[in-house]
Design a protein that fits this description.
It contains 2 helices and 4 strands. By secondary structure, it is α+β, with helices and mostly antiparallel strands. The longest helix is centred in the first third of the chain and has 29 residues, at 2-30. The radius of gyration is 21 Å and the shape is extended.
């Protein structure tokens, strides 16, 4: 009985791993990274902006005529990092 149980657990773990790998690879292939430069080149305009008290990070909100959603970008400036400016953009539906 223990051999069957271990085989079932191993098969179950392998199935979960393959499903997770498939989901992550499908997500990575369909969603190209959104960048501030790309948004500006595509005609998006700044709709809102806010900064923190120490001016190291900020949020920028973009809109585009004809689109029913906004895009928000958070940026961080850190002199201790090799890549000093880090940004993360995502759609707000």
């Amino acid at each position: 009985m223990p051999i069957i149980r271990h085989s079932f657990i191993a098969l179950f773990a392998l199935t979960l791993f393959l499903i997770a790998k498939w989901c992550l690879s499908a997500d990575a292939q369909t969603a190209p990274a959104i960048t501030i430069e790309g948004l500006l080149q595509e005609g998006w305009e700044v709709f809102g902006y806010t900064s923190t008290f120490d001016n190291r990070s900020s949020l920028i909100l973009f809109r585009k005529t004809g689109k029913t959603y906004l895009v928000q970008c958070s940026t961080l400036y850190d002199v201790l990092r090799r890549q000093r400016t880090v940004s993360n953009c995502y759609e707000l539906h």
